[in-house]
């Protein structure tokens, strides 16, 4: 961040016609949840699937649980969506006497999965021969038709919520969706990324009792290997055992453990030092601690010293235990750095 008066272009509001989000640098977000529910209902309700003498129809969108949002970070659009959907359907065979009823359960429609990989289960009420033939039709043909509608939902989500998120610079035309770079979140469950604030500025109107945690741990690895375990997405995913978001650069954000831990990198010195603004989800809103990892390679091990300032006093013991259990011990187990366990 530039010092006061140095003229960093991210802060020169005259470069933007509306004087907001200069050069699209800041994280901005639109809630796409309500729109998505309506759009999914439009695409799926009354969907007719007919072929080879079998006629089926989605008669009700019984459940749509989940969330969706569109975000702009550094001029890129990031879409989060995760939906659990249940549909009711009816079908008949040509010349058949029985109306077959059933459900389709769409389990994991999210940005982490291609539509072709989305899990769907088809069930029926009844077990007769006609019912089984209609069920087979829905399993083999019906699911493909539903996937086409889900593909259209994703396309229209990106088109609708590209509008206005990537803002033009002064004198430029509005950015068209076709010219926008689309990337996914990097983790399945959408994380609510709160604005990262400097720790000294997070408490307004009340005084929070805070303390400092200091720990050290020995690892049987090179210093760079520990640094990589904390900054490379595939290694962080391995020891946290879940989807993660991580931008290993100064100012880059991260989110681990299903969004329970979020923050921002303040300083990165490969193989030597990592400094983060770091918060646990249950802490007071927008209160961040500052975490420093000093990484020192010895003759036969690497010593990692952790210092965490501004930890809420009531959370000190639990936070200390969590560092040991979910970071240090997990890293040793995942990568074999654990001779000193």
Please give a handful of descriptors for the protein shown:
seven-stranded mixed beta sheet; elongated; 2 domains; 35% strand; Alpha-D-Glucose-1,6-Bisphosphate, Chain A, domain 4; 341 residues; single chain; Bactericidal permeability-increasing protein, domain 1; disordered N terminus; seven-stranded antiparallel beta sheet; alpha+beta
Q: Residue ranges: pLDDT <50 for 5 or more in a row?
A: 1-27, 166-170, 174-205
Relevant CATH superfamily of the largest domain: START domain
The end-to-end span amounts to: 40 Å
**CATH class of the largest domain, anyone?**
Alpha Beta
Instruction: Give Rg in angstroms.
Output: 25 Å
The DSSP helix count reads 5
Family: Belongs to the AHA1 family.
Protein name: Activator of Hsp90 ATPase AHSA1-like N-terminal domain-containing protein
GO molecular function: ATPase activator activity; protein-folding chaperone binding
Pfam family, one: Aha1_N
């Amino acid at each position: 961040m530039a010092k006061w008066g140095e003229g960093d272009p991210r802060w020169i509001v005259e470069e933007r016609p509306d004087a907001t989000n200069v050069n699209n640098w800041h994280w901005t977000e639109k809630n796409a949840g309500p729109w998505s529910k309506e759009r999914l209902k439009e695409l799926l309700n009354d969907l007719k699937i007919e072929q080879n003498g079998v006629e089926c129809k989605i008669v009700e969108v019984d459940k749509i649980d989940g969330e969706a949002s569109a975000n702009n970070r550094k001029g890129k659009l990031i879409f989060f969506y995760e939906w659990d959907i249940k549909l009711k359907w009816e079908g008949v065979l040509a010349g058949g006497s029985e109306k077959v009823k059933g459900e389709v359960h769409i389990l994991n429609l999210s940005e982490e999965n291609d539509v072709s990989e989305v899990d769907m289960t088809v069930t029926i009420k009844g077990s007769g021969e006609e019912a089984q033939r209609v069920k087979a039709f829905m399993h083999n043909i019906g699911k493909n038709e539903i996937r086409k509608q889900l593909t259209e939902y994703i396309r229209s989500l990106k088109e609708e919520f590209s509008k206005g998120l990537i803002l033009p610079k002064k004198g430029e035309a509005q950015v068209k969706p076709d010219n926008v770079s689309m990337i996914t979140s990097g983790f399945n469950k959408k994380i609510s990324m709160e604005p990262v604030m400097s720790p000294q500025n997070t408490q307004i109107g009340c005084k929070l009792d805070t303390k400092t945690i200091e720990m050290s741990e020995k690892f049987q690895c090179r210093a760079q290997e520990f640094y990589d375990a904390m900054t490379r997405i595939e290694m962080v995913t391995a020891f946290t055992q879940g989807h993660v978001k991580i931008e290993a650069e100064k100012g880059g954000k991260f989110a681990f453990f299903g969004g329970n831990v979020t923050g921002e990198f303040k300083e990165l010195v490969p193989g030597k030092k990592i400094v983060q603004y770091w918060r646990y989800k249950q802490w007071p809103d927008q209160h961040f601690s500052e975490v420093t990892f000093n990484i020192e390679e010895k003759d036969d091990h690497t010593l990692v010293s952790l210092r965490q300032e501004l930890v809420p006093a009531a959370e000190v013991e639990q936070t200390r235990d969590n560092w040991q259990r979910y970071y240090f011990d997990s890293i040793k187990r995942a990568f074999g750095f654990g001779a000193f366990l």
